[in-house]
Amino acid sequence: MKRLVVVTLPLLLAIAAPASSAEDTLYQDMGGQPGIDRIADMSVDNYLADPRIKDIFSESNMERIRAELKDQFCVIADGPCRYTGHDMVATHKGLHLTNANFNALVEDLQAAMDSCNIPFATQNRFLARLAPMQHQVVTR
Amino acid sequence: MKKLALLLLLAPLPGFAADEAHTIVQKGRAFHPGEVTINRGESLTFTNNDEFIHQIYSKSDGFNFDSDEKNPGENITETFTASGTFEVHCHIHPKMKLVVHVK
Amino acid sequence: MRLPFRALALYLGLAALASPALADALFDSGKLLATGGVSQVEGAGGGGLASWAMITGYGTRNGIGANLHYTAVPLPDYNLQTAGLAVGLYDRLELSYAWQGFDTQEVGGALGLGRGFVFHQNIFGAKLKILGDAVYDQDSPMPQIAVGLQHKENDRAAVIHAVGGRNSTGTDFYMAASKLFLAESLLVNATLRATKANQFGLLGFGGNKHNDYTVQFEGSAAYLFSRQLAAGVELRTRPSNLSVAHEGEAWDLFAAYFFNKNLSLTAAYADLGNIVIKNGQHGAYLSLQAGF
Q1: How far is A51 from chain C (nearest CA, A)?
Q2: pLDDT tens for residues C173-209?
Q3: List of residues 6+ apart from C283 with CB closer than 8 A
Q4: B93 touching chain A per CB within 8 A
């Protein structure tokens, strides 16, 4: 009995190890710039259609947000971009966001990545880098 | 007699030099006031009393400006050197609008 | 016009629920899918055997979540069922109640208790999250940590004493550390439990061999195959306080499927080892959780 557990655990860890080679970056696994741009655009479309969070964007310059999101996603995925926007604290402070708002955004991003056929494991590698932004972006 | 004296005190006196700079407050992602009338050569000081970063720009044939972005607590002053009616916006928050009548 | 205070509060509460801005509502169902865990065998939020540091339900720190669960564990010579209710308050405090029924079937007859003799247990649980966030703290090795207790009351005091058990009621105390390694799609949990319980308390607490609290371990490791499916393994050690029955570790291989934030199904192969006079008590574990 114990032997089965001892065998299963390393097996789980082996499954969990990234399938891509050492050469691939997350940026490449997400489809490079075209892939990331598409994910960013679809995410924003989802936010604006999501009754839970669409009102957060009612005063925003959506073209600007789309462009900044593309840059930011690229940087987060280790792509060859520079994010020239302001820090996450300054840009979100006035919105008084909750964890529920943040999670809704994550779900909409997941749906966009699903539509772009990004494998779940790759999605999680990207989300793992976004998750800590909760500390800066959620203030309520 | 007293009433007349009081009325004269309250009425705007012609020829008296107005303040060189008027203040516009940015708050709640809006300009306060939303409309203002000034004389050519006068300035508007925009004070960011908001929780958001703002900037100001205006685009028309006679007169343009496009400022840096300002954090909450910061000010910027713009001098209106042309006459006419101008709209001032913020490129971060497209619904923000200030109408400036310059005499 | 003055509204009575209670009527006003009720109106505001209803208005909040009716509002399309669900994120601001009390029952916000705002947590990400599967991040409340499922219902473990004693009714706390966790896996199947192990209690986890996550607070049950989908309420975020601004809200409340709750759920009902039913679990069936048909073993070769016994049948275990549990059913319960749990509430998660502001992603900080979890309160749970679970009822357990342990049917001894033929063994009851063999022991002179009567065929189909059933032990019942009421388990009252409380869990408090004290540090960390399993989902958001991806930039830190820090796990989410919670402390909890499970107060258990068994209804067969006379039989428990007859088999060498000291008490028919007892309380377990535990500390759980849970971490989601999101980049690896891996969820890991380790819990230490101070307990005197025999067979989770179904055969009472303390015994003729041993009557002190001992520290036991329960751990889970699960791989996330998709947003809806997690599968993994658990191990739980138990004290062996009774001379009449040797009790060893329990373990399971499980898969949990989250249909949506209202329904999940967990299926496992569980091995509870020796229970009183019967060895090899392994079989299916099926659990359904419904809530928000």
Answers
A1: 7
A2: 999 999 999 999 999 999 999 999 999 999 999 999 9
A3: C73, C74, C75, C76, C269, C270
A4: yes
- Whether C185 has its CB under 8 Å from any CB of chain A: the answer is yes
C287 to A119, C82, C200, C257, C275: CA distances (angstroms): 29, 9, 17, 10, 21
- Report the domain count for chain A: 1
Pick the CATH number of C31-291 from 2.40.160.40, 1.20.1250.20, 3.20.20.105, 2.60.40.10: 2.40.160.40
Q: Which residues of C touch A1 (CB under 8 A)?
A: 249, 251, 271, 273
- 3-state helix/strand/coil string of A78-94: CCCCCCCCCCHHHHHHH
Chain A interface includes B69 (CB < 8 A): yes
Nearest to B91 among A61, A86, A93 (CB): A61
Q: What CATH code is carried by the domain that includes residue A58? A: 1.10.490.10
Range of the domain at B46: 19-102
Domain ranges of chain C: 1-30, 31-291
C229 touches chain A (CB under 8 A): no
Render pLDDT for A63-122 as a digit per residue (tens, 0 to 9): 999 999 999 999 999 999 998 889 999 999 999 999 999 999 999 999 999 999 999 999
Interface size A-B, in CB pairs within 8 Å, comes to: 26
